[in-house]
Amino acid sequence: MDLGLTGRVAIVAAASKGLGRAVAEELAHEGAHVAICARTTGILAQTATDIQKCSGREVFHRALDVTDSSAVGAFVSAVEARFGRIDICVTNSGGPPSNSFKNTKPEDWRSAVDQLLMSTIFFARETLPRMQKNRWGRLITITSSAVKQPVDGLLLSNSVRAAVTGLARTLANEYAADGITVNNVCPGYTRTARLDHLAATISARTGSKPEEVFASWEREIPARRLGTPQEFAAVVAFLASERASYLTGTSIAVDGGLIRSLL
Q: Which sign, positive or negative, has the C-alpha torsion 240, 245, 250, 252?
């Protein structure tokens, strides 16, 4: 299937590793020019080199903090100057730490809002007007299955990612007539460094071994296994494509059947 991504220009945030990297790789393999950002310069540069080598597509990269609105603005402007346009923006950031409500401080809430919600707003404010000029665009947020079914211990993620989902659903309505789709993609338990860290945190709190934590997650999933970043990235690439032009305002779980709701 030709996804119609050849020559498109895609921004992928927090793409030095994990789900962000997998998405950037998938879009590049589909023929898009890719621009990636993350905080760690060395890892980001190596990721850009790796993707460019394996895909043959040009990869632009810049180290920045996605909670810095001016840095995001400068990055998007630089991408447009380099490639001439912005077609696709995939928002992403690291997840906030696991904690209980009573142990979560006000500053933890503010940090989570900046990390998850405000970073999405910053990218949307910069990219949507540019897409609007071209009458074509794709804004895709990487959220979590927690927006459909809260995960015990992930108070901040459960709360603030729901706000990101509400933002995206509203933007989908506002920009649909401009040929722009806005969708959320909600990963379930996917084998990344983030999940390894979460398993270690639960292990330290409960006394269970990390492998026992992973086994308990796998028992929850009808597919009886964790997902891979590549499986997740394939869904994002479809949503970014020409083929998904009539699909907007959705929250799609990529979770092996973990979410049990009807919708």
A: negative
Kindly report whether the global pTM for this prediction surpasses the value 0.70: yes
Residues 6+ apart with CB under 8 A from 212: 203
Instruction: Quote the CA–CA distance of 181 and 174 in Å, as a whole number.
Output: 10
Structure tokens at 83: 């490639």
Residue 17 in tokens: 């590793």
Q: What is the pLDDT of residues 82-132, one digit of tens each?
A: 999 999 999 999 888 888 899 999 999 999 999 999 999 999 999 999 999
From the list 181, 209, 219, the residue with the least C-alpha distance to 89 is 181
Place of tokens 């603030």: 160
Q: Which pair of tokens denotes residue 122?
A: 């910053």
- 180's CB contacts (< 8 A; 6+ apart) are 128, 131, 132, 136, 137, 138, 139, 248
| pLDDT, tens only, 223-259 | 999 999 999 999 999 999 999 999 999 999 999 999 9
